[in-house]
Amino acid sequence: MPTSITQDIDRLDQAVAGKPIYQTRSRILNLKSAFAEKKLCDGLTFSAGTACLYQCSFCYVESMMARSTDVLRILLDAKRPFSQVGIRRRDALATLKKELLTAKGKPRFKEDTRTIYGSPLVDVAATVELANETVQLIKLMLEHTQWTIRLLSKGTLLTTTVAKQLPAAAKNRVIYGFSTGTVDNKLSAAFEIGTAKPSKRIEALHRLQNEGYRTYGMACPSLPQRNYNEFAESIVNALRLDKCEHIWAEVLNVRGESLARTSQYLRNANYDFEATQLEQVATNGAAWEEYARNTFLAYKRYVPAQKLRFLQYVQPQHLQWWKEQEPFGAVLLGSAANTPRQADAAV
Known about the structure:
The chain is of the alpha/beta class. It has one domain: pyruvate-formate lyase- activating enzyme. It is built from twelve helices and 16 strands. The radius of gyration is 20 Å and the shape is globular.
């Protein structure tokens, strides 16, 4: 039975992947998400949770939710860091239905043909229970909107559970993607805890592609590489470029303790070269910029501009160079991206 720690927070009598599970009362839809800037959606996102059941060292969600009163109360009760709790949203289906309909039961978004992205906060299919919940959420959106629905996961249940339960009519309205910043199973296991192996994610992607589902690639985040061209080629070949509508790519973001945590995870798994390279770019702005440019240029070599969406948070002194890459698939993010062009500093 749930145990309430405040009026709006329950601690459930269960643990998943060693994490205590909490429920909060919160919205499912975000109608003005910044994820539109990443071209993953048209400003619409949905999420049925706040803290994921996976544990990835580079996760940015903690830095986004650090000021949430509910999250702070949960962490105080759990006596654990954010990465070691799971947070779901109470009555997700009923909440979403209320958000989709007016007080008179009429669809608010019936003729709306935008794209919605799920999920910016948690994996939509980390467990069978969550995958089944995602199916029901999608069915509500299919019924009451004309939205295209973009899904992302680090597991395989998008293929074996979600796609198989959706009606045939949904095939053209749902786009499936699997986050694959590396194709190396052992390397992934060092800093993506609890996720499916990259090889299994790629198998799940191929199965959807073979069965005619819409798919896209999410090649991020990626570490500094010994050989950037070989790395990008291996990723693009694994994703099967011809069967992906687009391929997103990105280097690691500087968010909270994510870089230091990722470096430590790598060292713990005896990936000393990778840890050292990451530490070097983390403390040297010129090295970081070189890492980002080398990663972009490698993808630019293998992915046509119309398919590539390389996400880059730009610094003012590098804005001009990145502006010149926009026709080739660079997607500029951050406050500097909206400022007047400036002279590019030497890398």
